[in-house]
Amino acid sequence: MEVTTFNQSFNDAEFALWDKLGAVVRLSYGIGIYGAMALAGKFICSITGIDCMGGFHPSLTAIVEGLGYAVPPIMALLFILDDEVVKLSPHARAIRDVEDEELRSFFYGMSPWQFILIVTASSVGEELFYRAAVQTGVLPPFVPFAQAFGAVITAALTGSLYFVAASPKAWYERRQLKKIYSPLLEGLLALYLGFEWNQTQNLLSPMITHGIYSAVILGHGLWKIHDHKRRLRQRIQQLKSEERGSSSP
């Protein structure tokens, strides 16, 4: 009995160590990607001769606007991911399945500071690339309605890149086609952030909106996964206790 307990404890410790190492690797990979996006955005801005910071200026107005713009998309997605909505809508079920899969494969196991770091890096890197460089530096010279066109095309580009990166085989495997929901949501968020930046003309606002949105949605999803596992462990322990009670004379 003692040997079995020791072996189980050793295996649990070993798995915990590998989980921590995996989280560090994923964190480094994510920060590297977002850092490369920021550098690419700076390079594009240097070629086109525009401000690579997208009018970034710390101010109370920008902070309030960023927080205010974050509320509608957060409330909309939390409503879609609600248990009752998921039971009634297969589309909502598909969205939550994909979101949960991404959370388990990338974010699960990260410490709070690692989670905050990757959310911050994604908010800064993506906004510098998509908003300051692509939406402002690449697309506007080609059309008269530059701002709206830039926001729409940037949103389409964002969704396409997310889909290619996350599900490269999904177009060819019908059973995986539900994975298009996640890039679609990213594209809609990018469109929303693009119009926000057009209105505020301060890159700090969409950065804050992006960061708050990601932190709330991802944090809520991780909490749901953790709560589900906790209840599952409690149920297993209860069944074991009932089994021992029924087997005892």
From TrEMBL:
The keyword Membrane applies. InterPro entries: Rce1/LyrA-like_dom. Pfam families: Rce1-like. One of its GO terms (biological process) is CAAX-box protein maturation. The keyword Membrane applies. Keywords: Membrane, Transmembrane, Transmembrane helix. The chain crosses the membrane at residues 27-50, 62-81, 145-165, 177-195, 207-225. Residues 111-215 form the CAAX prenyl protease 2/Lysostaphin resistance protein A-like domain. One of its GO terms (molecular function) is endopeptidase activity. This is CAAX prenyl protease 2/Lysostaphin resistance protein A-like domain-containing protein.
